[in-house]
Each structure stands twice: as C-alpha cells, then as structure tokens.
Specification:
This protein has a 5-stranded mixed β-sheet, with helices on both faces. It has a single domain, classed as Gcn5-related N-acetyltransferase (GNAT) (Aminopeptidase, 3-Layer(aba) Sandwich), CATH 3.40.630.30. It is α+β, with helices and mostly antiparallel strands. The mean pLDDT is 96. Helix content is 36%, strand content 26%.
Length: 144
Amino acid sequence: MTAIRPIRAEDQAAWLPLWSGYNAFYRNEPTEEVTHAAFHRLCDGSDGFFGLVAEDGGGLVGLAHAVFHPATWTTGTYCYLEDLYVSKEGRGTGAARQLIEGVYVEADRRGAGRIYWHTQQYNAPARSLYDSVGHATSFVVYER
C-alpha cells in the first residue's frame, strides 16, 4: 500500500533517483547546487516550498513538490504544484493521484485559493490523470 507523507531530510538518498528521473523526462539538467538547494528548501519549507513523497514497500516511488505564493487576484495564496513524478515501479498503483490529493489537503489546510500545475501536451498518461483530478484552463504558458 502506498503512503503519502512529507519529505524528510533522511529521504535524500531515496529521493535523488526520483528527482533525476523527473528531470531526465523533461530534459533538464540541474546542477548539484540546485539539486541540493531544492531538497533542503523542500525539507525545511523555506520560500513557501513543501514536498511530499510516496512510499511503497519501504521505498520511495514518487514525489510532489509545491510552492505557496501570494497572488494579485487574492489576499491569500495560490499553490503551484511544480514537480510530480512516480517511478516506473510505482506507476499504476495510484501513487500519482494520492500525491496530488496530498497537495490538495495541504493547500486546503493552508487556505490556498487555487492549486495549479503545468504539463507537456505530449504527456498523455499524466494528462489522463489530470483530467480526472482537475480541469484544463485556456491559459497558454510563455517563458523567456
């Protein structure tokens, strides 16, 4: 059975392969400095970050990283689900849905007015799940 819980400092060695798999999927190559900083910000909750992990059979099979931030459209905060990843071994177990639901619980606890995330158009397996736990908007993302 998969358990969802906050990330802890002692998870670093088990978290790293998940983080690496996530970044490989998106063809991102964070430096060691970025990886180290991300992990510590997730563990200590600095800068509005929080992290969840999915644990199954004594090992980690997934991660969810989110950040709370102020917004001009509310006096409260929004929650951005920045990273979501489940290992090949953890896929099909419901871990991704449970991680999203875990983010929802924390966002509700903190009073976030909105929870949102992005994915690639071609990520059909993830989009199938996302269509069942949220709704697509008409926004198009631009970046520099």
